[in-house]
Amino acid sequence: PQPARKAISCGISGVAGLSTRTLVTNANLKALCDADTGTESIGLWGEFVNAGTRTEIFNAEPLTYGAKAQDTNPYNDWNYSGETRYWNSGMLYYFRACFPQDLMTNLMEQMDATHFQGPINTKNTQDDMLVGATQVNTQTSPPNVVNIELQHIFAAIRFQVKAADGYTPSADEGVVACWLQNQGTTDDLFSRAGYLLHTGNETPEIHWTPYSSVFEELYRWEYPTGVNFNDEPHSLYVPNGTNVGELYTRNDNWIMVIPQTVKAGSLKFFYKMKHTGDKVFSVTIPAITYQPGVQYNYILEIRGASATISLTIQDWNKLDASHDVEL
After folding, report:
1. Cis before residue 286, ω within 30 degrees of 0?
2. 148-172 b/e with 16+ CB inside 10 Å = b?
3. pLDDT confidence of residue 29
4. Quick one: which H or E segment has residue 26?
């Protein structure tokens, strides 16, 4: 008798940095992708190559979650529609995934098992988007689970304010507005929009091409009552109940930005204080290269009419819990 064919199983595992409010824990991801009550899904693309001919096996396949009370295998809680796919021996397989599926498929110009590409503008898109890919060679026995590690496509920046050492701010010395703005006359400036290319399967890579910069106020946010501060950092970009910058408050004060290089002197952070009316203050953002999947926390230390800015850089927290999916 012929041996039983082995079903393809895929694990969305080792997701690096589910640390924003939208994606906090494994349980939240399951809830977002719940087949009955969820609003999102993981999207999957897959194909195999035989003698130079590519055969598609998954095309924008939505993966949803549905716990099975009588089944203790966690892989079986993740499902797709349609018939079960099986491995073929002696083939090279490519897999690529994204989250959230609907948003990314609306933004991308092309999506398949070997690459995603398309334009994104963070002026009007602040969702934490994830991509991942891998490949499998079935010259030997197929794996039990194909693991795809998802990575953030954006960098994240946050601005916090505190009193400088030895300075005691007055009760009405709160920050009521802030924004970023390019300086100078060159085209090589900070951009909130760019073109994404996610390519490679054995070693997936995220590439960004920033678009031409603009000199208008970027990520402007207002908070009429003012964010007061003391000797401890207080986050700006908190929910404000206004129409000015509310989009930029949705990720626990973190702003999603296009990974890129900021040259020295080319970008400033502007802010207004409650007790000084329309007067505008500013500090220069030091030269920096923003990388995907990295958080950049700026702390503005205010002393009356002057301020300095410091930066802490860290990777998004890696979530060790596995998001395993059986296909």
Report:
1. no
2. bbbbbbbbbbbbbbbbeeeeebeee
3. 72
4. helix 26-32
User: Tokens 């073929």 belong to which residue?
Assistant: 88
pLDDT at 175: 96
Predicted confidence at residue 32, as pLDDT, reads 83
- pLDDT at residue 73 in the model: 53
Q: Terminal CA-to-CA distance of the chain, rounded, Å?
A: 26
Q: Environment class of residue 78 by beta-carbon count within 10 Å: exposed (0-12), middle (13-18) or buried (19+)?
A: buried
Between the CA of residue 224 and those of 161, 272, 276, what are the distances in Å? Answer: 16, 10, 13
Q: Beta 146-148 vs 9-12: how paired, if at all?
A: parallel
Instruction: Using alpha carbons, select from 295, 158, 131 the residue that is nearest to residue 219.
Output: 158
Task: Identify the segments of the chain with pLDDT beneath 70.
Answer: 1-4, 9-27, 67-76, 185-187, 317-327
**Assigned token pair, 45:** 């693309």
**What pLDDT was estimated at residue 31?**
80
Distance CA(255)–CA(217), nearest Å, equals 15
Give me 199's structure tokens. Answer: 């390519």
Cα separation values, 6 from 44, 145, 149, 195, 284, Å: 19, 11, 23, 39, 58
